[in-house]
Amino acid sequence: MPEDDSRGPVVFIGLKPTMTYVFQVVAQVHSGASPVVVKARGNAIAKAVDVVEVVRKRFLEGAVDVGPITIDTERLVNREGREANVSSIAIPVTPRPGATIPMPGNPPKGAGPSP
Amino acid sequence: MPEDDSRGPVVFIGLKPTMTYVFQVVAQVHSGASPVVVKARGNAIAKAVDVVEVVRKRFLEGAVDVGPITIDTERLVNREGREANVSSIAIPVTPRPGATIPMPGNPPKGAGPSP
Asked: Which of A44, A52, A85 comes nearest B113 by C-beta?
């Protein structure tokens, strides 16, 4: 059953190493045709951009499109029980129609941000 | 003379406090009709998103459009003289045609990420 684009796979970026999330995104892109949405909040936003850049420039070059990127503000309750606003980002990574998705392996050197 | 959109004002996000850049963006939006592009690299990317969220949700609510957001990889020479890849983001903030740009003052509370 094809997945609804609006409820497709999501990869949340947290405290693990960048490459952990890179492989999650590559695996999700391999598993289906729907956009994979990379999401992050707060300081993890920079890592989310790294993840998508490594995916599209080293692993899935020419095989995916990125965007439209959206940003938002979420209201969270922090550890002290107080409400705080935190920025968020959502970056869709969409397989190009007809593109051959490369299998994960040794990516070409010198492309994408250093992990 | 109207500015060329492709060479319009740019606010680079660095190590200063978030609100410093918020006021720079608000001032630039006030001074003209062209998009103001908020740019950042590496860990400053999260702060760039904070800046734009505070601008559009607290200071210039309803008066600007955000996007299309683009991400890229830049090749830099770091302090040790070695080349390194770093992710970057560019977030255009565009005044809405006909919208009244609010003057900077006390923003409504509870909107936009906490600075």
From this structure: A85
Tell me the CB-side half-sphere exposure of residue A79, using CA atoms within 13 A. 0
A18-54 pLDDT, tens digit per residue, is: 999 999 999 999 887 689 999 999 999 999 999 999 9
Using CA coordinates, name the residue in chain A closest to B82.
A114
State the complex-level ipTM. 0.81
Q: Can you give the pTM of this predicted structure?
A: 0.83
**CA of A105 to nearest chain B CA: how many angstroms apart?**
20
CB atoms under 10 Å from CB of A110, counted, come to 11
Q: How many helices (H) and strands (E) does chain B have?
A: 2, 5
DSSP, collapsed to helix, strand or coil, labels residue A11 as: strand
Residue A86 near chain B (CB below 8 Å): yes
